[in-house]
Amino acid sequence: MRALQLITIVLAAGMIFSACETIQTPEQVAKDFLEYLEKGEFDEAKKLGTKDTHEVLESFKVFGELGEEFGETEDAEPRKISDVKCEIEGDEAKCTYMADDEKEEIFLVKEDGKWLVDMKKESPL
């Protein structure tokens, strides 16, 4: 009887902890990604992107490093990201946001149940 109670407690605790997992919305993923990007934290941003996004971010990283080699430094403050709103259609989301005073957009896709930023090489970001 005692073993059955212990198993029941363990199973109940597992269900409670799995219910408490953070479910990422496209809005939260987009906001986190953009804030990492603004700070130049490309490795963190990559965790929230598709394979195509990883390639684009590697390009950003290389260009940033090249600029530093030639004495160029980025002293600009990161833009403030706000008002992120997403329109979801199936496994795709189009998100608009404000970067300081400019309205911009970014696209996300759902892969394996997770929302990821989907940047293409031709993306204007």
User: Can you give the helix content as a percent range?
Assistant: 40-55%
Fold-level CATH name: Nuclear Transport Factor 2, Chain: A
Compute the average pLDDT.
80
Class derived from helix and strand content: alpha+beta
Secondary-structure element string: HHHHEEEE
What is the highest CATH level, the class?
Alpha Beta
Strand fraction: 15-25%
Low-pLDDT stretches are: 10-21
Number of strands: 4
If you had to describe this structure to a student in words, what would you say it looks like?
By secondary structure, the chain is an alpha+beta fold. It has a single domain (25-117), classed as Nuclear Transport Factor 2, Chain: A (Roll). It contains four helices and four strands; from the N terminus they run H-H-H-H-E-E-E-E. It has helices at 2-19, 26-39, 42-46, 51-69, and strands at 81-89, 92-99, 102-111, 114-117. The protein has a four-stranded antiparallel β-sheet with strand order 1-2-3-4, with helices on one face.
SSE topology sketch:
Blueprint: H1 2-19, H2 26-39, H3 42-46, H4 51-69, E1 81-89, E2 92-99, E3 102-111, E4 114-117
Structural features:
4 strands; 25% strand; 4 helices; single chain; Nuclear Transport Factor 2, Chain: A; alpha+beta; globular; 125 residues
Task: Describe the structure concisely.
Helices cover 45% and strands 25% of the residues. It has helices spanning 2-19, 26-39, 42-46, 51-69; strands at residues 81-89, 92-99, 102-111, 114-117.
